[in-house]
Fold this protein.
Amino acid sequence: MIDEILAETEQHMTTALQALQRDLSGIRTGRAVTSILDGVRISYYGTPTPLNQVATVSAPETRLLVIKPYENRIIGDIEKAIRADASLGLNPSNDGHIIRLPIPELTGERRIELTKVARHRAEEGRVAVRHARRDGLDLIDEAQKEGEVSEDEARGGHERMELLTSDFVKRIDAIIKSKESEILEV
């Protein structure tokens, strides 16, 4: 019973960790990384569609992204969507067939802002892990109350839950430390 609760809680924590990594991949680091455009949506036949489903995105140089739409008629929509996403702060240009997206050098002030954003997202990840822990501990307590597990098993489950939580918090700390150094790297 305890093992099932721990496995379920670990799954929730893993999901929170993956969400954090996905969020952090969208933060610009001063290098051309195609994942910064993952959040951009294009109105394609009236449906908001992810950019990577209507175009090929590549990074041929360290400071340049190239977007090749599958249909040339949507090139203006793609440009407009990129400009509209203020968090990117990018200025696309097109030649009628492809969109070039130069990635400007980050200023020191902007780097500090981005590290704050990354830290905030990491804290959200920690909160999600703690919520999963709380839910798991509640399930253990409920199982003990219903007589499905003994008091000793419940206490052991609580200890294992704390170890699991601390492991995930350490992983989040390592991820955010790596992302901060990536952002601050000149």
Notes: Helices lie at 2-25, 75-84, 108-145, 151-184. Strands lie at 41-44, 47-50, 55-61, 64-69, 93-94, 99-102. The longest strand covers residues 55-61. The chain has two domains: 2-25+107-184, 34-102.
